[in-house]
Design goal:
Layout: H1 12-62, H2 64-68, E1 83-86, E2 89-92, H3 94-99, E3 117-126, E4 129-138, E5 143-144, E6 147-148, H4 150-160, E7 164-167, E8 172-175, E9 181-183, E10 196-201, E11 295-298, E12 303-306, E13 314-316, E14 332-334, E15 349-351, E16 396-398, E17 404-408, E18 411-414, E19 424-426, E20 453-463, E21 466-478
Parallel strand pairs: 14-15
Antiparallel strand pairs: 1-2, 2-3, 3-4, 4-10, 5-6, 7-8, 7-10, 8-9, 11-12, 12-13, 16-17, 17-18, 19-21, 20-21
Helix pairs in contact: 1-4
């Protein structure tokens, strides 16, 4: 009978297999960790060269005057440097950027791949509009043994952005898909393969965020002055809208188009324009003056006020003048009609045509060079007595009982004429009677002209021997 026993533990084969699998897993894990670490380093290298590139672009902007004249600098308070310049251009270092405050003081100038940088700047163009370009390169190529790590250089470029590039030969640095390239003949720092490069200056994409002092670089975005002033500007040209809290001009302001003002316009001098339109009311504290033959024109109705000589204000367009109050003047002249529904008070009214009114009252004279026609009656209030003196000839009056009198040869005369062809002498009925009374008593012998007769003369009768026979005869003539 076979005695079966349980065998405990691992066989040698099993142990070998287990160790092999563990080693493989560890190797794979190590490779993953290495790749992840390399990616982190590549990203950091790209961000670091971009940081330096942005600092160099700002440096070009603030030191353009020195770079355009290829002026070197070292330890100057206003221009600290270091900056070494020659006829071929200028070279600066990361310390230059630290001294200008463009990089933090803790910056070491060595990237995550343990490489330093070479920063070369070139001048091109003509005076005064020089252009400054430059190239930043790592001093040490990215190698692993004898292998150039273009893969990590590419990942670093992704992090650095559009102005980054690399050297795939010892004579040429290129950007994304050949978007830009620089030769070693222009930049001696291009001397190995595997270098990371970054383009700076006027031709770079990132430099467009800076404002060129020479004006050759147009803005691609808004200019934010951070609540600071712009001083000593000569001309400012805007194709769009200029927005300002207070727009202050010490000289002339010329506007080629329309000006929209939502508030008041105050002027201490003259406001001049071909046409000034007001959509509301217009006020003036002094005279409203027109300089030509114009005046005030009412566009809607086609009339207005104007003067064409030194004497007359006229209603333009042959329009009427109407007022609910008074119209005052020392002299009112009309070549047409004057219609008044109320009272016209004037010191003198002269009309070359008709003067029509329901009621005309004058405290003085009314003179007419023509006829005065009344469609009804004429009432004469001046009273006189026939036979009284008058002046001038031609006056018209009336007696107290309404008979018409005329001033003829200085005497008020009735309206009828004396018919001298039918005159007669009339005596009193008792003309030849003797009164028979005492001498001191009053005696009367009356004689009266008949109706429609007027006495135009008298004669005295008397007998020499008898006074009582004296009497007076009247010469009476009929009125025609």
């Amino acid at each position: 009978m076979i005695d079966m026993k349980i065998i405990k533990g691992f066989s040698l084969l099993e142990l070998i297999l287990a160790l092999g699998i563990g080693t493989a897993i560890s190797f794979i894990k190590f490779q993953d960790m290495k790749a992840e670490q390399e990616n982190i380093i590549a990203q950091a290298v790209g961000e670091q060269i971009k940081q330096i590139g942005e600092a160099v672009n700002r440096y070009i902007s603030i030191r353009y005057d020195k770079l355009s004249t290829l002026s070197s600098s070292s330890s100057q308070s206003s221009d600290p440097g270091p900056r070494a310049c020659s006829a071929n251009g200028c070279e600066i270092t990361f310390q230059t950027l630290i001294n200008e405050g463009l990089l933090p003081p803790s910056y070491t100038g060595i990237n995550a791949n343990k490489s330093s940088y070479k920063i070369l700047l070139k001048r091109s163009g003509i005076v005064p509009n020089y252009v400054i370009n430059g190239l930043i390169t790592t001093a040490v190529p990215w190698m692993e043994g004898n292998k150039t790590r273009y893969d990590l250089l590419g990942k670093a470029m992704q992090s650095a952005g559009i102005d980054s590039g690399m050297t795939q030969s010892a004579t040429l640095a290129s950007g994304y898909s050949g978007s830009w390239s620089e030769k070693s003949s222009n930049y001696p720092s291009i001397n190995k393969t595997g270098l990371l490069a970054y383009r700076v200056g006027y031709d770079s994409s990132m430099y467009s965020v800076y404002l060129r002092r020479d004006g050759t670089l147009p803005m691609t975005g808004s200019l934010n002055m951070g609540n600071q002033d712009i001083n000593n500007a000569r001309n400012i040209t805007a194709a769009g809208t200029t927005t300002s809290g207070i727009l202050h001009s010490t000289g002339d302001t010329t506007i080629g188009g329309n000006a929209q003002v939502n508030g008041d316009i105050n002027s201490n001098n003259t406001v001049s324009g071909t046409t000034v339109s007001s959509r509301g009311e217009t006020y003036t504290k002094n005279w409203f003056r027109t300089l030509g033959d114009g005046g005030i024109y009412f566009q809607k109705w086609g009339g207005g006020w104007n003067m064409t000589d030194a004497n007359t204000i006229q209603a333009y367009g042959g329009k009427n003048i109407r007022t609910a109050a008074g119209l005052y003047g020392g002299y009112v002249k009309s070549t047409g009609n004057i219609d008044a529904y109320g009272t016209v008070n004037a010191q003198y009214v002269w009309a070359s045509g008709n003067l029509n009114s329901n009621y005309v009252h004058s405290n003085g004279n009314i003179d007419a060079n023509g006829r005065m026609n009344a469609g009804e009656f004429v009432y004469i209030n001046g009273q006189a007595h026939q036979g009284w003196g008058c002046s001038p000839n031609g006056l018209q009056g009336r007696t107290a009982d309404g008979a018409i009198l005329s001033c003829v040869n200085g005497v008020w005369t009735g309206g009828s004429k004396v018919n001298r062809n039918q005159c007669m002498w009339l005596s009193a009925s008792n003309a030849f009677s003797w009164f028979g009374k005492q001498a001191w008593e009053l005696h009367e012998k009356p004689v009266i002209c008949p109706d429609n007769y007027i006495m135009v003369g008298t004669k005295m009768w008397g007998w020499a021997e008898d006074v009582d026979d004296e009497h007076v005869d009247a010469y009476c003539c009929p009125l025609s």
